[in-house]
Design a protein that fits this description.
CATH architecture of the largest domain: 3-Layer(aba) Sandwich
Keywords: Signal
Strand content: 15-25%
Protein name: Esterase
Largest sheet: 8 strands, mixed
Shape: elongated
Radius of gyration: 25 Å
Number of strands: 8
Number of domains: 2
Helix content: 40-55%
InterPro entries: AB_hydrolase_fold, Esterase-like, Mycobacterial_A85_antigen, TPR-like_helical_dom_sf
Distance between the termini: 67 Å
CATH class of the largest domain: Alpha Beta
């Protein structure tokens, strides 16, 4: 019964993703043929007319698109990854020609050289012209296409800042080309690599060699993650690798976790408020996204300020909260805490009182603000 229910939910989710997808056909001069695309836009794309979005390019779109699009939609709903535009390229009839390589140097040849140019010179300009995209671009491939996306990494100016490489069928020289390039990369780059214990033998061997070479590279611009899954096949590994990859690549974007709170905030000599600023500056710098500070993160930093007795920073936290949630009492509450802890009880009382006109949020209520104001009034005889 549980298996039947699982299959029903899976089919329903696929139908929902398909219902949200846009189907385009692009005519390519490079290929001398047309290509079918599947495009998933963020849920509120049409309402947020001034907002731009990171771009995810999915090769093997005929079977990978739904897996990627579904995971992206789910994770972005919970704000663990940014909203993105997902574009899948259908290769069901052209995969071999699209991914062939030279036996002499392992680089694209003939049809794959044309496909390489199609993506960089035709597809990306087409998407950027017709949809609102940010500079951040992620490429995803599996098997032969996982090998292929690495050719963009080898360019002097790589087209993508992030790569999800699942069970790659590597060309012979790529186990040298890729680590050498990642060791010299001079801008922030995310590289996720995965295989499985039951992968195709040649794929597993090549992936393990590649992992060994990459993990020995020291480069502050490289964010590298490797997973070897247990008991999955070459094809079933995709379903587990995609969510793990998204979590890894967008870890900075995610809400502050309990581990992050203890290990990166409380254990640090730096003020907690600085951690919050740097986190959201990094989100903008890495992904091109102006993310509103989450309530979760405000509460985490407020707790750290309390524990570390950095009470003066409540003032700046209050200003940040006013900017992020101007209609709510969050900013007023933090400013009142600043006045309360810096021996300005009268200002604290008035600030608590003034918060009554703002909306309740994050467990803060108007009754609570009035109670805090009355307590100060009684304590100091105002």
């Amino acid at each position: 019964m549980k298996r039947i229910l699982y299959l029903f939910v899976l089919l329903l989710s696929c139908q929902l993703v398909s219902a949200q997808a846009i189907y385009e056909t692009i005519q390519s001069e490079k290929l001398g043929a047309s290509r079918k695309l599947k495009i998933q836009l963020p849920r509120n794309y049409s309402e947020n007319v001034d907002k731009k979005y990171p771009l995810v390019i999915v090769l093997d779109g005929d079977y990978l698109f739904e897996v990627v699009a579904g995971n992206v939609d789910y994770y972005s709903y919970w704000e663990d990854v940014p909203e993105v535009i997902v574009v899948g390229i259908n290769q069901i009839d052209s995969r071999y020609n699209d991914t062939m390589f030279s036996e002499q140097n392992s680089l694209p040849i003939d049809g794959s050289a044309k496909f390489f140019e199609f993506i960089g010179m035709e597809l990306l300009p087409f998407i950027q012209e017709n949809y609102r995209t940010e500079d951040f671009k992620l490429a995803i491939g599996h098997g032969a296409t996982a090998n292929f996306i690495n050719y963009y990494l080898l360019k002097d100016k790589p087209l993508f800042q992030s790569y999800i490489v699942i069970s790659p069928e590597l060309a012979p020289n790529m186990t040298k080309y890729i680590p050498d390039r990642l060791g010299k990369i001079d801008r922030e780059t995310f590289y996720y690599l995965a295989t499985t214990t039951d992968d195709l033998k040649s794929v597993k061997r090549g992936t393990e060699l590649l992992n060994t070479a990459i993990k020995n590279k020291e480069n502050d611009f490289l964010q590298y993650k490797y997973d070897e899954f247990k008991g999955l096949t070459h094809y079933s590994v995709v379903a587990q690798a995609i969510p793990k990859a998204l979590e890894s690549i967008f870890y900075v974007y995610q809400p502050i976790t309990s581990g992050e709170f203890e290990n990166d905030i409380m254990a640090s000599d730096k003020p907690a408020i600085d951690y919050l600023k740097e986190k959201y500056e990094s989100i903008k710098e890495l992904y091109g996204v102006d993310k509103t500070i989450l309530i979760n993160d405000f509460k985490a930093i407020a707790a750290a300020i309390e524990k570390k007795s950095e009470f003066k920073d409540f003032q700046e936290l209050g200003k940040m909260a006013r900017k992020s949630y101007p209609e709510t009492m969050l900013g007023q509450y933090y400013l009142a805490r600043f006045y309360e802890e810096t021996n300005q009880p009268k200002k604290a009382m008035k600030t608590y009182q003034s918060s009554y006109i703002f909306d309740e949020i994050a467990g803060l209520t108007k009754d609570d603000m009035i109670e805090r104001a009355n307590r100060l009034k009684a304590d100091f005889g105002y």
